[in-house]
Amino acid sequence: MTVALITGVSGQDGSYLAESLVARGYEVHGVVRDPGEPITAGVVAHDLDLAAGSAIGQLIRDLRPHHVYNLAAVSSVFTSWSEPSLTARLNGLAVAEMLAAVRELGTLGHETRFVQASSAEMFGMPVQSPQTESTPIRPTSPYGAAKAYAHGLVGAYRGAGVFATSLVLYNHESPRRPETFVTRKITAAAARIALGQQERLELGNLDARRDWGWAPDYADALYLAATAAEPDDFIIATGVSHSVADFVRVAFERAGVEDWASRVDVAPGLLRTGDAAEQVGDASKARSQLNWAPTVDFDGIVAAMVEADLELARHTR
Ligand code: GDP
């Protein structure tokens, strides 16, 4: 039986990936922070702190998994400014612990394939558009800096003979996204406004353009990377960007709210330092080498999220 270990298993990506691996008959283990965290049925939970010491390395040595998917992270760029040290430990150093354990298993004759969830945030204010695997890495946030370190480590261990792949995942969304991310914040508000449960919505930079994809497609990319012939770095993106304002407009239309602009306030406190004007990725390499392609477009993502939030809001009336 193939054994997979997922860090961040209770998050959006972890839950989609866990469901697909359980369905494929894998023995799936997941790292959780708190014993009470909700976790996909059939997954064995391991309660440990990734940011503290070598517990994760020990777990890998004991479990001897065939795949490790590292999805745990301080996931908010905004929070990384108030928690830079935690961000460095969780998004950066924990990856060193994991790769050292994976390499050690390799010396004992056991291959563990390591897949890292990297982020377009590593490119900071990107010097080219769309970004590719060779775009210069110049982070502009503590989050991006820690992800850049981990991405570099993956390349170093790959050079040392470890099966280590880094997927540079652009923003990917679903009804499982928490409201700390702008897409879900918008769709949840659109639904509540449509049902008369909320009046207005406060947002930050409406002009930021992001390459938003459908989260289950990105979970598929993680699996394709782990089962590929060779490890490598890949951009995972749709290649199409939209502004935050575009997202609001389409979401409010879908929810049946007219004149979105009159409902939205820009709060200066929500503007970010080092926020890229545009992130958009070129996933040609993943398309040709991993046979990966996005299956849901921008309108489809917004529609699915608004429908799920309308359903939720009707039940919490
Ligand atoms: P991130 O790229 O992982 O940080 O994903 P987010 O969904 O948090 O942010 C995406 C973009 O939306 C960034 O450019 C933010 O500056 C922008 N944005 C604008 N208003 C907001 C807001 O109210 N909340 C969040 N989270 N992002 C916002």
Percentage of helical residues?
Answer: 40-55%
Question: Can you name the CATH architecture of the largest domain?
Answer: 3-Layer(aba) Sandwich
**Radius of gyration over C-alpha positions, nearest whole angstrom:** 19 Å
What structural class should be given to the helix and strand makeup?
Answer: alpha/beta
CATH topology assignment of the largest domain = Rossmann fold
- Tell me the CATH superfamily of the largest domain: NAD(P)-binding Rossmann-like Domain
Low-confidence stretches: none
C-alpha termini separation: 46 Å
How many DSSP H or I helices?
A: 10
* Shape designation: globular
The percentage of residues in β strands lies in: 15-25%
Main sheet strand line-up:
3-2-1-4-5-6-11
- Summed over residues and divided by their number, the pLDDT gives a mean of 96
Q: Count up the domains.
A: 2
Model description:
By secondary structure, the protein is an alpha/beta fold. It has 2 domains: 193 residues, Rossmann fold, CATH 3.40.50; 98 residues, UDP-galactose 4-epimerase, domain 1. The longest helix has 24 residues. The chain is globular and about 65 Å long. It has 10 helices and 13 strands. The strands form 4 sheets. The protein has a 7-stranded parallel beta sheet with strand order 3-2-1-4-5-6-11, with helices on both faces. A two-stranded parallel ribbon has the order 7-10. Strands 8-13 form a two-stranded parallel sheet. The mean pLDDT is 96. The chain starts with a strand and ends with a helix. The structure holds guanosine-5'-diphosphate (GDP).
